[in-house]
Write a structure and sequence with these properties.
Elements: E1 8-13, H1 23-39, E2 44-47, H2 54-63, E3 73-75, H3 76-81, H4 93-96, E4 102-106, E5 113-117, E6 120-127, E7 134-141, E8 144-151, E9 157-163, E10 170-176, E11 182-191, E12 194-203, E13 209-213, H5 216-227, E14 233-238, H6 241-248, E15 256-261, H7 283-287, E16 294-297, H8 300-310, E17 316-318, E18 339-343, H9 352-365, E19 370-374, H10 380-389, E20 396-399, H11 406-411, E21 414-417, H12 426-433, E22 438-441, H13 447-450, E23 457-460, H14 465-476, H15 479-492, H16 498-527
Helix pairs in contact: 1-16, 5-6, 9-14
Length: 528
């Protein structure tokens, strides 16, 4: 009898998926589609964060064409909880329990219910506004919240959180399998006024403690060992190195290939690429750049800077982001004259205060100009206050995050980029592919690889507000120039085609296999 041929498995390692994806998550899911459609490889998207909405998020991403329906998502908590992946409706027994001596009051304009006992609030049942399915139940005692039960997308009880009634932090979490038995218990402690995880216990179906961990990273390491079969060949593509890289070092088999992806600057300060402190997300990688089978970078310029600092290695590969397919061009006349757009997280590193202040000066010269900034984040209130202080509420608008920004790019005359740093700038690629020129800071890395100054946009020295303002005015007041930049943006975007990305990934995977064979023969020769 012949031994079964090893299966090759390709794992894309992330932390979480959400309705509002980060740039890294969007890039990872796009890469998954390219692998499936261009290389004939169906990868597995791996996540480790607990997310009771993951089943619904998966459906949402598939519906919007972001996640390919045949690409599975493997989550650590769903694995231990044995979550039903089909998304079939579960039996929501708790929502059907109605005591005659309790009072149930519907919350106006929602599907929620408040439950009272002897006139006191006992429960708040939170339900989906669309389907009415139970999301969670908050429990109260003497007016204070003491517990929260969360339910997964099938309506099954997923986790019970015991809360401190005064401070509202979590004291204990119990995670449940779909059959109702507990599988994981987490205990939390309070030291020096800091809330932290104390320990994690894993239980069998009889309630016996089978494993215990001090940190989440230990649980992740344990889980990775569980899902890796010795007989199969694995290609781990790490999008979140901080979570996975060190944990994967315990998997030293020749069948395990580690591919790290660098999604941001390799240094902390964003300026000194050759002596600056290393970005903590990549510290373990750059401590020994020979360890990974491949280090994937997004631009040739970053690769050059890294080689100058850490030496030339055969495991560096440059694979820029790509588009699944190029958007069909739209007539320039359909673009809203004088409307400028930006897509960004509302966070300090995006320098959106620069953008707002500069655009307020543009409006003084071009009163019809408007700027729409799409996104979400911690800086929203601060930015709204700045817009109000500058008297720009009729010209600058903060808009909600959009999952599919095509209509934004196709209606604006150009977009703006004011980030302190990027590894590539996915929004710049997307904007140009929709024929929407970009005016942005000339930062490391990415913009200068895509924006050809004066051809499909303009590059501005960081901090040169005067030049930035003038370039915006130049384009807004010259429709012919704007249209020419748009045409050239479409032409230049051909380099973003997925076929080129697929070709580079195929070369990388073949190179890894070749190096492994060479290293194996070299080791054999030494031992002989």
């Amino acid at each position: 009898m012949f031994d079964e041929k090893p299966k090759k498995k390709y794992m894309f390692l992330n932390i979480d998926l959400a309705y509002h994806l980060t740039g890294i998550e969007r890039a990872s899911l796009l890469r998954a589609k390219i692998f499936h459609e261009q290389l004939g490889i169906t990868p597995v998207v791996v996540t480790t964060k607990y997310n009771e909405q993951l089943l619904d998020i998966r459906k949402h991403l598939i519906h919007n064409g972001i996640l390919h329906e045949q690409v599975p998502v493997l989550n650590m908590y769903e694995y231990f909880q044995e979550t039903i992946q089909s998304g079939q409706d579960g039996v929501d027994e708790r929502s059907r329990v109605r005591r005659k001596d309790w009072t149930y009051k519907d919350v106006p304009h929602t599907n929620d219910t408040r439950v009272y006992r002897d006139g006191r609030l006992m429960m708040y049942q939170k339900r989906s506004p669309d389907t009415g399915r139970l999301h969670y139940i908050n429990y109260f005692h003497q007016g204070k919240k003491i517990r929260r039960d969360k339910f997964d997308g099938n309506g099954c009880l997923s986790v019970i959180q015991t809360l401190d009634p005064d401070k509202q932090y979590v004291l204990m979490e119990t995670y449940y399998r779909v059959d109702g038995t507990p599988c994981i218990i987490k205990h939390y402690t309070r030291d020096n006024n800091k809330h932290r995880l104390g320990c994690i216990m894993m239980l069998n179906r009889q309630g016996d403690v089978m494993e215990a961990f001090n940190e989440e990273s230990e649980l992740i390491s344990y889980w990775l060992r569980q899902i890796v079969k010795p007989s199969d060949i694995y290609y781990f593509m790490i999008d979140k190195n901080r979570v996975y890289y060190k944990q994967l070092q315990v998997l030293t088999s020749e069948h395990v290939h580690i591919i790290t992806l660098i999604h941001s600057l390799h240094v902390k300060n964003g300026r000194d690429m050759f002596t600056g402190a290393i970005n903590s997300n990549y510290a373990d990688i750059f401590a020994d750049v020979t360890k990974p089978d491949a280090i994937v970078l997004l631009t040739e310029k970053q690769k050059s800077d890294i080689q100058k600092r850490f030496g030339i290695q055969g495991n560096y590969h440059v694979i820029p982001h790509a588009l699944e397919k190029l958007p069909a061009p739209v007539p320039f006349i359909r673009r809203e004259e004088k409307k400028v757009a930006a897509l960004s997280r509302y966070s300090p590193e995006k320098n959106l205060d620069h953008m707002i202040e500069m655009f307020s000066k543009v409006v003084q010269r071009v009163p019809e100009a408007s700027l729409e900034i799409y996104g979400s984040g911690s800086e929203k209130r601060k930015l709204l206050e700045l817009i109000d202080q500058l008297g720009m509420k009729e010209h600058i608008f903060l808009k909600p995050y959009v999952a599919n920004p095509s209509t934004v790019y196709e209606s604006a005359v150009f977009t703006l980029l004011t980030s302190k740093c990027e590894a590539f700038s996915l929004v710049t690629m997307e904007s140009l592919s929709h024929g929407c020129p970009v005016i942005g800071y000339d930062i490391k890395y990415g913009p200068s690889d895509m924006i050809m100054d004066g051809k499909n946009g303009f590059l501005i020295p960081v901090g040169d507000h005067e030049m930035f303002v003038q370039r915006i005015i130049d384009v807004l007041t010259n429709r012919s120039l704007n249209e020419l930049l748009s045409q050239q943006a479409y032409e230049y975007a051909r380099q973003f085609r997925s076929q080129e990305s697929a070709k580079r990934w195929r070369h990388l995977l073949e190179n890894i296999s070749k190096r492994k064979v060479e290293n194996t023969f070299a080791s054999f020769a030494v031992e002989s």
